[in-house]
Hints:
- Helix content is about 0%, strand content about 50%.
- The chain has strands at about 5, 10, 20-25, 35-40, 45-50, 55-60, 65-70, 75-80, 90-95, 110-115.
- The strands form 2 sheets. Strands 2-10-9-4-5-6 form a 6-stranded mixed β-sheet, with no helix packed on it. A 4-stranded antiparallel β-sheet has the order 1-3-8-7, with no helix packed on it.
- Strand 5 (about 45-50) and strand 6 (about 55-60) form a beta hairpin.
- The radius of gyration is 13 Å and the shape is globular.
Amino acid sequence: EVRLVESGGGFVQPGGSLRLSCAASGFSVSSSQMSWARQAPGKGLEWVSNIYSDGSTYYADPIRGRFAISRDNAKNTVNLQMNSLRPDDTAVYYCGIGAAPPYTYRGQGTQVTVSS
């Protein structure tokens, strides 16, 4: 059974950092395209970043230079290091299988709130 579980969200002040993790089971992240997307209040699902099976990474313009996606093959996880967080990064963050949404499989999401 394919399962994705996000963790690591929380409340942080502007300029702070968080590290999100997506634990996968039922398949191998090392051989899959994986991505992160987010949904801010009142808005649609927005692609954030993806990582291909060959290790190539891509980022949406709003977060490029501040976020970094990575993969831990031993733990079968995909991570998103988020630095220099801003209030407009506030959203529920999801990981999913595939380069971008819509996802056939995605996790339940983890809330990130950036506020002073």
